[in-house]
Design brief:
single chain, about 50% helix, alpha+beta, Cytidine Deaminase, domain 2, elongated, five-stranded mixed sheet
Amino acid sequence: MKQKKIPIRSDGHRERLRQRFLNGGIERFSDEDIIEFLLTLGTPRVDTRLPAREVLKKFGSISNVISAPMQELLAIEGIGEKNALYLKFVHDVASRYLKDRIINDTYFNSSKNVFDYLFHSMRDLEREVFRILYLNQKNVLVKDEDLFAGDLTSSAVYPREVIKNAIKNNAASLIMVHNHPSGDPTPSAHDCSLTKNIVWASRLIGIRILDHIIIGRNTYYSFTDENHIRKFEDEYNIRLEENFHLP
């Protein structure tokens, strides 16, 4: 089958896009305009309106486009390696921006902020990864790291390793995050049991578990938002009172 030729468009249209951005910022751009403009960086003399339209149709949103795997981007007619490279570059710059933004800042004060920070890097992982965010007493990020990685459906997470690394990083509190490669962030019975065990273990050494967030395809589940972390803490206190006959 003979491949269609992508028509060449004059520089006039691109110049209008540049001027529109300079005069009014990105608010004057549609999603299609944004993707089209990014694609022109890779092929400056080729009409990129149609590829922009097609890639948005396939992936649904700008965030999905820039985080899409390279091979899936290359499958869109009119998107070559240079176009895909610029899209992936924008994705990585955005990730770096988010990381720089939270240095020395109490950014992780909501599950939504945590989701925004990690969504692009964890959403499309094919294997389950368990990540820890270590925070100091002011809820400022000290370090984040992937502590466990599993197979296609699960990771072998050991509470003792979570606690050991929290102490090693002088964390006053931590946030646990892992992804569900299936795209459904609903916690499993194992997720709930694991969270409870880590909450209980952390209480013994004075470290707070602020949240456990599960990242799905375009959404997430927060144990704190659903009041489970508080429930596990209350259960721990009740068990402590029963065992030690505290008043």
